[in-house]
Amino acid sequence: MRGMVRAMYYSGMRHILVLHFALVFNAAAAVINNSTNGSQPHKLLIGFQAPWNMSFPFSALRLGSAIQIAVEKVNANPSFLGNYSLDFVYTDTDCNPKASLGGFIHQVWKENVSALFGPACPGEAEVTGLIASTWSIPMFGFVGQSSKMDNRDIYDSYIKIMPPLKRSSEVLVKTLEFFGWSHVAMIGGGLDSNTWDKVDALWKTVEDPLRAKFKLTAAVQFDTSNPQLVYRNVKYISMVTRVIVVLTNREDSMTLLLEAERQGLMNGDYVFFLVQHFEVSGSVAPERTHDRRSSNRNKPPATKSVSCLITPQSQNERHGFGEANRG
């Protein structure tokens, strides 16, 4: 766990984790206390599953220290757990359902975890959530998952701690206000070209406050699978503003950013906000193929501009804006 300290953490996520850890393990401590005399200190262990790879927005390298800080804050306040201490064990699942399932079985049988935080990726959550439900072990989802997880009859031990759609727009608005950016544009894909269940709802949730509080110079919603439309609309957006909100799924977001790089928009003059509420747990970069040209084409843009992932947990995030603010 020492290696986790070096990981970058999001302060917004840190405060959320403190609250949920306190509530969850307060209940767990009460259950355990009924079967003990309460005279000896006890340790409550939580399982944490996330990919280690930094290409995933919710990788352990990004969240590890947030969880460690949350655990330390809970342990530092006796009013939370009383005669109990809290700790966690980590499993690198690499967004692989088999790895997640095997890791969870090990965490339960060998390490005796009381609850599971994660897994971060939808495919993993659907599989591991079934056995967690069978064993009546609480599983906390901190990332947007597929609609299958909403079936309470099947996933009855799954607890979703994702905030409502409007939180994403609130994070974006506060960030724009903080840096004094008054002109902004939106670009992205509609429901026909997107795998999100509620992409149109999220688009509307983001668009309304931007129109109310800023100068929304353009709002272009189109089929992002059409290369000609991607070229044309990225070109147009770059002419009306330098602060661009990208609202689409992860694959199409990368397509738009790569096109922006080809058009010379990654020189430090533009800021791109990737607003995601669903499927945010996927890799930032598409899978690379064995073809050398294809591999180079799929690499994330080398950029001086800022690409910021806006999620509901990012409200207090302040990382990475300095260069764009100066430019």
TrEMBL record:
Signal peptide (UniProt feature, chain positions): 1-29
Main location: membrane
Gene Ontology MF terms: peptide hormone binding; signaling receptor activity
Residues of the Receptor ligand binding region domain: 64-283
GO-annotated cellular components: membrane
Coiled coil spans: none
Subcellular location as annotated: Membrane
Pfam families assigned to the protein according to its UniProt record, in alphabetical order: ANF_receptor
Annotated Polar residues bias: 304-315
Chain residue ranges for the region called Disordered: 285-327
Keywords on record: Membrane, Signal, Transmembrane, Transmembrane helix
Compositionally biased tracts (Basic and acidic residues): 316-327
Biological processes annotated in GO: signal transduction
Protein name in the entry: Guanylate cyclase 2G-like protein
Organism: Lates japonicus (Japanese lates)
